[in-house]
Amino acid sequence: MMAIPGSSLCTPRPGCLFDYDVTPYYQHCINGKRLVENRVRAESFCDRTIFVFSKQAEEKPCASCNPGSYVLNESPSNCAKCNDGEYTNTTNAMQCKTCPAGSHSPKAVIYKNLEVMPTEFQTYCERVVGEILDTCSILKGWIVAQGKFTVLPFFPGRVQLILKTSVNITDRQGRIEFNYVVKQATPQVEGLKIRIDGIATGNK
Length: 204
Fold this sequence. Notes:
The protein is mainly β. Helix content is 2%, strand content 30%. It has a three-stranded antiparallel beta sheet with strand order 1-2-3.
């Protein structure tokens, strides 16, 4: 059972879900391989007694370097971004390519196959005005699970979960483009709002 600050009664804890409550813990990459162990994330408030999963460590390939970066020191777990005028369009590229004369490489960052929250992102939780339940006392924001950004599907009360990053545009001709896909939305999630400099650009 659980009770969030502001609630008038106790409610059953939801069952643990592998896609949301379980996170992999990685050991060091050696010869292209590493051991991965699944654990219930510390901040999860799910009922661990009604969920069983394998805790035995498995050997899996090292992390991949996404397009726009290259493998550093011949280790796929170490990636570096291409310099201006260079690009890669494949995973685990060993070196960046130079753009042909008369062309350029627009800055692009691809977030996929995530293992931890990227350091350039901030995430936090805000209560909706008028909401009594202090859900943010246990729900801290977005998380990274199964290689992607996600939110926990079960939580009482109405909150906004913020995922925030900064982009510095130095060219007057500069612009921002972003592509995203919403997968497995649940009834508890009212929608996704995207804001640039505080101005809403769309809802999903």
